[in-house]
Amino acid sequence: MLKTFKTGGVHPEERKISAGKNIKIPPLPKRVAVPTTQHIGAPAKPLVKKGDIVKTGQLIAASGGFVSANIHSPVSGKVFKADEVVDASGYRKPAIIIDTEGDEWDENIDRSDKLVKEIALSGEEIIKKTGEMGIVGMGGATFPTHVKLSPPPGKKCEILLINGVECEPYLTSDHRIMLEKSEELMVGIRILMKALKVNKAVIGIENNKPDAIEKLTNLAAKEDGIEVQPLKVKYPQGGEKQLIDAVTGRQVPSGKLPIEVGAVVHNVGTTFAVYEAIQKNKPLIERVVTVTGPAISQPSNFLVRIGTPVGQLIEAAGGLPDNTGKVIGGGPMMGKALVNLDVPVTKGSSGILVLPYEQAHRAPVENCIRCSKCISACPMGLEPYLLMIEAEKKLWDRAESDSIMDCIECGSCSFTCPAHRPLLDYIRLGKGEVGQIIRARL
Question: Considering the entire predicted model, what is its pTM?
């Protein structure tokens, strides 16, 4: 019997219409806007100014602290200006805007396709290099990878989990990486194992990707300590705590991190980026992004330079359909509607979903009928209907005591609610307020 997590979960339609599309490279953008806040933690500090000439891969903003990440230029050209741009959150964020001139790369980057298997660096050097190369979690959380590879004193990693679940409907970028960069992934896993000083790694993949399971299983059979674990399809199995539960049966305590149960989780996109950083000296300047939707004429998986405007990718996928009602950054469950098509691709951008009008509008909100479906669906064992009421009425102390900060914002509650109540919207609002209160105490 296939494994899965125990608490909650839902089964949205998969709609992986771009799963069979090989990764391709879109035209180079004429101008990029590179935010300095593409990660959890302190913003990076700009190192360039208007008029400076930069190369592809050059460091342009330095990490603002231990929990932060370096930013490198995704193109070569001239710095147009430092300004604020609207990102996927809808808020204006500081960014470095660069006009593209040719594509001259930093000479220290190995751009060949040759697979490099031998890992020359020590574990400590690997951790340092991932920080220098600006690697962050590419499954959406954007947590700096060098921090994740540095467990706090007294904590030890016992198992490395590689997240190949990709449970969001429509998105297929991770699937394509597993198929097209599988050998590089194996080296990336061994690099992470060396940094964490562990001898066991498990790649979790839902069984709706049999081709990826077969390919990686065959490769893992040649590696010591690496195995593939097929999983039952259930959303949101790609959540760290849900994946840990599914693979190991361990439960991460409320308010704690995966290292509390001896686990560290890395996304397959992050693992490939680690391979390129360590073996190819390549910083995180591009990533695979799925561009898809029911009416998109050419659903695609693109290898995209960071800072590329979303609109350019939609054009590369056949253009914006006439019946478009909403463009979402990410998938339909956890993604957010974009305010315009100038929003830049960032390190955490996994997909762009174009929805037609009939699928984009919300149904009228009705009164809660106390059906408890949201409670049954919540993978964190919370009471979403109650958290929404507490957020509406600004009962922040009660929301905190009812564990609102444990919400992983998966949207399962809103998905399953027959009254179409905006549960996740209010819980997000409540998390923001409660988070500020908690930080003010420190």
Answer: 0.96
